[in-house]
Amino acid sequence: MLMERILKRENLLTAIKRVERNKGSAGVDGLGTQNLRAHIVEHWEDLRSALLSGTYEPQPVLRVEIPKPDGGVRLLGIPTVVDRFIQQAIAQSLTGIYDPTFSEHSYGFRQGRSAHDAVRKAQNYIREGYRWVVDIDLEKFFDRVNHDRLMSTLAERIQDRRLLKLIRSFLNSGVLENGLVRPVTKGAPQGGPLSPLLSNIVLDELDKELEKRGHCFVRYADDCNIYVRSKRAGERVMESVTKFIEGTLKLKVNRQKSAVDRPWKRKFLGFSFTPNRNPKIRIANKSKARFKERIREITSRKMPYSLENRVQKLNKFLNGWVNYYQLADTPSVFQEFESWVRRRLRMCIWKDWKKPKTRIRNLIRLGVPPWKAYEWGNTRKGYWRISKSPVMHRTLGNSFWSSQGLESLMARYELLRHRS
């Protein structure tokens, strides 16, 4: 039976290692990942018995609100670490059953596939002449999953009733908000290891429908782009696919965020495209704006970070950012951002020096002639304007920032592009 396979030692060891590696916050019971292994060893017999007998009851998930970049909040549900461990074990076994049957057009939450693969596929469609996109946004998808439809779909391939009951209990485990547990009748809260797989199972029905209709499309989780050759075709597709999603899948399309438009006027997974016949991948404008917003937070004059601390925070953010956006074919953007980040840092240093005599002393120490140091040290120009001045460029140039440990955004980009 499937439940026995889920509870095999090898599967459980893989599950506990993944939960420990992913870390994450504690759930409603306050138990952290660092205590998970000892807790399971102590309570394993009771836990295993409850799972095999079908009497295991998950605890409610802890509701957390995460601000979205474009406004609003994303609701995350954090299960307890024990429930995350069990969900991970289930997900590993079910992935082997479901993943081989998923669509080739599906890229989200699948081993060996990535957001970069999805963006490259979209680029190929545009290159082939599909220069209109039907960009469909599913409104609060994870909060609207119909439990009855999902369980009916799972029952078609899962015969172990204990497992079906357990999955249903995870879906219905309730949410702890403001100290009160609220029951849940629909949705698959983001935050648990099982949710990504369940979302792919729900949306696989959409994939199969689009394949049956012969559409060129790319789907990454609940982001779905369908590529067509004309605006009129796109409008027909938008109407018919919306009817299928809302009528058959019982989900809701966000009409304000969905559109039929040129691909280079839309964003997909943080990227967009140039309108060339052979389109290049570029970073979407909203992604650029979020980059600058985060840099402003780290380099805010109001934050009393030391220079060393700022550089460490910047390196952590910049490395993660360039690792994702290195797919873009626009090196000038990385060069521009690197210069802008250094200017922000020069502004912070100028403010830290505060008094004219401190500025004069530091400028002389950095090799500026005394008369020039006196001139600039007594200037009344603003911090941001001074940060672009020739004297600051020369004294706090690239070699200075390298000596402070600031990693080069452009060098990292070129390295990653060369490897790929």
Task: Tag the structure with descriptive keywords.
10 strands; 420 residues; alpha+beta
List the helices and strands and how they pair.
Layout: H1 2-6, H2 9-22, H3 36-53, E1 61-67, E2 73-78, H4 81-98, H5 115-127, E3 132-137, H6 141-144, H7 147-155, H8 161-171, E4 175-177, E5 180-182, H9 195-212, E6 216-220, E7 223-228, H10 231-247, E8 259-261, E9 271-273, E10 281-283, H11 285-298, H12 307-325, H13 331-353, H14 356-365, H15 370-377, H16 383-386, H17 390-395, H18 398-403, H19 409-419
Parallel strand pairs: 1-4
Antiparallel strand pairs: 1-2, 3-7, 3-8, 4-5, 6-7, 9-10
Strand percent estimate: 5-15%
Number of strands: 10
Integer-rounded radius of gyration = 26 Å
What class do helices, strands and sheet pairing give? alpha+beta
